[in-house]
Amino acid sequence: MANKGSKATRGQSKKGKTPKKSGDDVSMWEMTVGREVDWQSDKNLPDTNLHMLINQLNCDVTFRVGEAEEIVPAHKYMLGSRSNVFQTMFAESEAIMEDNDEIVVDDIEPNIFRHMLVYLYTDDVRLDPENVSLVLYAAKKYGIKGLRTRCLRYLEADLSPDSACVIMEQAHVYDEDDLRLKALNYILKTGDGTLRARTVGELCHECLSMVLASDDLNAPEDVAFFGALYWSECELERHGKDITPEGRRDVLGNAIYSIRFPLIEKKIFVQKVSPFGVLNDVETNTVLQYHIIPEVGAKPFITEERKGTFVRPDMYEEPKVEGVIDLTQPPEPRMELPPIIVEPEADPKKGKKETPKDEKKPADKKKDKGKKKKKKEVLLDHNLLRFSTRDEMLSWMCDGQLDDAIGFGCDHDFLLIGFLLFGPSRYVRGQYYVRARVEDDEGKVMKGSLMEVEVDVNPNDKYYELPFPTPVRIECKRVYTLLVNVRGEPCFQGTHGNHTVLLDDMMFKFFNCERSHNGTTVEIGQIPGLIVNTE
Fold first, then answer.
1. Domain residues of the chain, as ranges?
2. Out of 97, 168, 310, 423, which could bridge 101 as a Cys pair, Cβ 3.0 to 4.6 Å?
């Protein structure tokens, strides 16, 4: 098991931090004060086992766990009855061990060890994203098949664009080939969103190469490039090296040839890809030559399209446009006029214009002169921002193929006036074709939220506002989903997103959404905020 331990250490070091302890660990492990009489009567078998463990009744083996060598007492009978590894350990050491002899476990943290013990005593375990991979390591070390299965099922169910790369790498670390393959297939299917997630930096070079080399990768080549570029920077930081073009190329190695540079649109290649200097002059000229004379090829780069295809959500109809859509160019702007009251045309026979009903005559105005005017109710709208920073290097693709989505809720009722979107990252004026809707927690479209609009965006604006046709009433303590589909210029993306945002005495929460096929999550992506009214 020494090799497994070393692998686990490698996987943990990538995150650079020790997983947080679950909140239930302390309360679960508090000992009962005093000794109850006949405490067994009202408990079932798992409860009595857990009571014996927590209150350290009749324990006959002691573990010193973790770097701090925390004392954790247990029972040989219970451990040996659930784990062949423990049974063999106790049998082999019976001749030299006495009651309460101590066993050192220095490769597992105390809270993870306790999670494992609770499973052995009760057949139950509390898994979360912070502890599941370490509990899996403990289960494999001590041969606890049932716990291992629970961990693998949890990880498989937790696959998302933001977690898939981490799960694939952990499966690689712990030699779980089936889970690794499932995670890989998920990454290939959702590649356009997954490669934008910062967790792509968690992959090892072997796993990254598998993703980039696959013909089934469902992502544009510039997205594949920027994902690999971000990975190279993470890899350089892990080795304590400076981030340079040469360094990026060195750590990427032959994986660079799995990116199909000739398929990247020429303008994006020249403005966004080439300046990073990952390709040498000869390779850059080869790609540019292919754009002019494609029949000459572009060796050593691949020029065939991948088999991965975008899945267009059926929640929207196709945009009604004439002719062939060129996604490299933004759509022609369509002027959106606010609702207006059209005055009736003058009757030529009468020679004078009819007075509109809403227009007051001079005599009426004199009557109203002395009346006190009512104060017009002013609604205060707030731009509720959810990102701490905006990425100035990487762009977010807006090709209209996939939706960005985010879940949200609040502890108070409020009116959702609209939402915010990032503008063009190339600092040029951008036109965007936007479709959006809000759904409640039952999947019903909220009245007044369905919209379809074209907007012209100023490149100097950090974001632009899109109000709904009518304000949407949001009820407290329910989770809603905002789905947005954007076609136009590549735009900026937000980073370091906040799960919770406070506005006065109101608490807004944001949630990851499985319908966010373009990659937006709580942590990164589009939809920088909501326009809310809290009156």
1. 2-31+42-158, 177-296, 381-533
2. 97
Q: 3-class DSSP state for residue 33?
A: coil
- d(CA 295, CA 43) in angstroms, rounded, equals 78
The topology under which CATH files domain 2-31+42-158 is Potassium Channel Kv1.1; Chain A (3.30.710)
CATH topology of domain 381-533: Jelly Rolls (2.60.120)
Closest CA relative to residue 404, chosen from 481, 483, 511: 483
Helix (H, G, I), strand (E, B) or coil at 5: helix
Cβ burial, residue 462 (10 Å; 0-12/13-18/19+): exposed
E-assigned strand segments in 414-512 = 414-422, 430-439, 451-457, 463-474, 480-488, 491-497, 500-503, 506-511
Q: Which residues contact 309 (CB under 8 A, 6 or more apart)?
A: 218
Distance CA 60, CA 74 (A): 7
| 3-state SS, residue 296 | helix
Residue for token pair 């299917």 = 189
Are 164 and 190 in contact by the 8 Å Cβ rule? The answer is yes
> Which is nearest to 473 in space by CA: 502, 497, 448, 442?
448
For 349, list phi and psi in degrees, rounded to 5: -70, -40
Q: What is the pLDDT along the chain (535 residues), one digit of tens a residue?
A: 333 333 333 333 333 333 334 444 444 555 444 456 677 777 888 888 888 888 888 888 899 999 888 999 999 999 999 999 999 888 876 654 555 568 899 999 999 999 999 999 999 888 888 899 999 999 999 999 999 999 999 998 888 888 899 999 999 999 999 999 999 999 998 888 888 888 899 999 999 999 999 999 988 888 899 999 999 999 999 999 998 999 999 999 999 999 999 999 888 888 888 888 899 999 999 999 999 889 888 899 999 988 865 443 333 333 333 344 343 444 444 333 333 333 344 444 444 444 444 455 555 545 555 554 444 444 467 889 998 888 776 778 887 878 899 999 998 999 999 999 998 877 667 789 999 999 998 889 999 899 999 998 887 778 899 999 999 999 998 999 999 999 888 888 888 888 888 888 888 999 988 888 888 888 888 999 999 987 7
User: Beta strands 61-65 and 102-105: pairing type?
Assistant: parallel
Residue 300: asked if its preceding bond is cis (omega within 30°), the reply is yes
8 A C-beta contact, residue 400 and residue 511: no
Residue 155, C-beta contacts closer than 8 angstroms, at least 6 positions apart: 132, 133, 136, 167, 170, 171, 179
